[in-house]
Amino acid sequence: MDLQNSTASPLEPEGEPDQALPTPVAGQVTFNPADQRILIVDDSVATRRLLRAILRSAGYQVLEASDAAEAQGIIAQTPPDLILLDIMMPGMSGFELCERLKQDPGTAGIPIIMVTALSEVRDRVQGLRSGADDFLSKPFDRLELVTRIRLLLDKKTLADRLRQAAQQLSEANAQLKERVRLMSNLLTVGHQLRGQLTPDEVHGAIREALARVAEVEVFSIFQRALWTRGWRLTVSMGLEEGEALSAATPTELEGIPEEVLAGRKPFFHRDRGEPPPMLRVQALEKGLPIQAALPLIADQRPIGVLVVHRFSPQALGLVDEELLAMAAREIAAALYNLSLYNRMRSYADALPGAESARAREQSLEHRLQRVSTVAFFSGQLHSTLDWDRVHELIRRLSLDFIGAERVYIFYEHEQEQSVYMGTVRGLVTGTPAQVGAERHAALIRRVMLSGKPFPRSVDQVKPPEEGGAGTVVGMPMNVEGRTVGVIVVESLLPEAGGWTEQTWDLL
User: Fold this and answer.
1) Residues 157 and 205 occupy one common structural domain
2) Poorest-pLDDT segment among 20-29, 178-187, 298-307, 452-461
3) Which of 37, 126, 158, 405 could form a disulfide with 492 if both were Cys (CB 3.0 to 4.6 A apart)?
4) Cα angle vertex 245, ends 267, 213, to 5°?
């Protein structure tokens, strides 16, 4: 519809230059007009020319259509940020086009200003019912037009940002739920891992842990071969070459970074533009891709390496890497428990022949029971996140396992040294126990500095009037190469004072 009496012309815009681009008021969402596309839909060439001049002088990109059909084609190819829509057009009216656009989820969020010479109330009501966001009557003021456009684009920009933030929040919540689910699975699987004491059970639990928690499809675990140089394949999954490797003699591993084999840090192949490094062993003709390689650390030393050959996601994310690292710690503990189990069996088998079979059976049963106790409490410890429960389990493990008279645990927590004491008569949570700290200050200091266990005679630290002779042992609590605390065990009874090699291994 033609515009006969506009108060502005394309060559001589009305108002001063500062009126052409109103400054946003405080609280408005600012945007760059050059990034905003405005579609003019009007059958009048003169009206389109005038609106084009006004919008371009304000810095906007301008699209034009002479009717509804042309407008629909432009919107489908280049969605605008705002539409100036004439009502009275040949063919489809502005009311009908507006209604169609608002009913389409893909275009419903585009603000529409109806530009019309109609002044009847019923026309405005019909426009509102069709979904129009604003009206501008002809003839219109240039400053009013630019201001209405800016307000609607401010509103749209804010709505877009809110939708984007909501989408990001939804994705973050989904990732958090998935992380919690995987962590829960890892705690469950870790408990199962530490509770198994036969090779088949441990290896099966390892396969389940990596497949269920870390979504690993193909992996291999190598451990140092005893008495000879090289590595042996301990357990694998999805590895066709596994049988050949299992039967092979100890072999050297090529392709795994030395820092992994030495237990210093893991390796993750993050550059998807480059092929992963290849693991090469003497028993195989071809190499195996290395997506990740993680050291297995137990008893403060590397006991093996976990090599992931294929991971189900296309790329390892930070959460995936963290889950793999946690799984590696659980696997290392399980393999270490298994080695203790086997060592206890060998100790029992090596008892002197003069001892009866019943004595050997009782000795083995006693030692395996202690290994089972460690495995059970370790699983419980790794499946709880409650401080009080953790402290109780630590005290019970120390007392039940060693049969100690007293156990002190010294560690830094919340900017103060906390000491927890247990006795054979019950579990007692002490205040930051001065008696324990003073009595064993030198021992604690030595263990903290060295990071190694140290035994000493109770006679050296306990006054004679308090009676009893036995052994005091300080055991470091080491995490990732750092000593974070000390467990001090007092075995006061003479029969509890003998610390055998088996006791040291289990402790």
Assistant:
1) no
2) 20-29
3) 405
4) 45
